[in-house]
User: Which sequence fits this backbone?
């Protein structure tokens, strides 16, 4: 089945007009800085968890200049439980770069955007499209899955972005810049709400009757098994617990107290996880998320 691009555009854009989530960073009044904050917060994090933190963050730091003047410790505390707290430090570093290089404004050029700390190809394209209305190609896992199914007849996209997928996505972006910006977010929204990896709601999809995957009988993925990431007892869990304990206090915490509190909260035996805790502490210090002080104590960065 060959899906006509015009049909694809019309169906998806019509669906989006009625089904789009009312998110504050999609409001026309939202600044490019607000869009940048939302994009960084939304990396590997569900939107439902992002929205309240985004609102609090934008109230406290409504501009790049205001965040650039904040301390790293305050930024990590305000990040809360969004996960991957290095993103908080990178966002602050991006704010400093915006002040130093762009007068505190978010540029619309993708090369300039990619030069900012913590901004990769996807985020740069998203900012160009969603903050500035530029015609570009925004490709995330949701977009890749919709196109894999609707156009290619595959259950899932490749484990990582391929050149062929990038070309396919680029070939389907409408020529008009304003329409292209809406298209990029609309197809992403379709993947997030309807064409999900697990439990897709094909009966609610505007593309059901023209979807190559549905026409093929919705065959299962024929690639290698995809296993979810483990969590309990991993370094990531221990790192997150360490940062959370330090986020809850305003003073440095002794190494022994950190071990007792963190391993106790996680239910991990000290005789098997003490070395892991030390390894995680060292990695947090290396990442700039935790700062050692005299007396083998630790705190969030000043």
Assistant:
């Amino acid at each position: 089945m060959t899906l006509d691009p015009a049909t694809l555009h019309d169906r998806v854009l019509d669906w989006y007009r009625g089904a789009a989530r009312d998110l504050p960073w999609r409001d026309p009044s939202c600044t490019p800085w607000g869009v940048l904050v939302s994009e960084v917060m939304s990396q590997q994090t569900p939107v439902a968890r992002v929205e309240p933190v985004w609102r609090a963050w934008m109230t406290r730091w409504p501009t790049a200049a205001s965040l650039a003047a904040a301390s790293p410790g305050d930024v990590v505390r305000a990040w809360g439980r969004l996960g991957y707290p290095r993103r908080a430090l990178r966002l602050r570093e991006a704010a400093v770069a915006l002040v130093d290089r762009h007068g505190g404004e978010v540029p619309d050029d993708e090369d300039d955007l990619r030069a900012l700390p913590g901004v990769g190809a996807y985020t740069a394209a998203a900012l160009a499209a969603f903050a500035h209305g530029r015609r570009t190609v925004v490709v995330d896992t949701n977009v890749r899955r919709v196109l894999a199914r609707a156009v290619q007849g595959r259950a899932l996209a490749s484990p990582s972005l391929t050149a062929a997928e990038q070309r396919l996505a680029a070939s389907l972006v409408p020529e008009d810049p304003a329409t292209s910006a809406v298209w990029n977010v609309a197809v992403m929204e379709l993947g997030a709400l309807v064409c999900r990896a697990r439990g897709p709601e094909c009966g609610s999809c505007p593309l059901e009757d023209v979807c190559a995957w549905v026409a093929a009988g919705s065959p299962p993925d024929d690639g290698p098994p995809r296993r979810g990431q483990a969590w309990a007892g991993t370094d990531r869990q221990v790192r997150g617990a360490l940062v959370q304990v330090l986020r809850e206090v305003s003073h440095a915490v002794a190494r022994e107290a950190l071990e007792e509190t963190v391993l106790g909260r996680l239910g991990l035996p000290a005789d098997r996880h003490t070395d892991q805790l030390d390894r995680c502490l060292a990695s947090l210090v290396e990442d700039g998320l935790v700062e050692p002080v005299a007396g083998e104590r630790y705190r969030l960065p000043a």
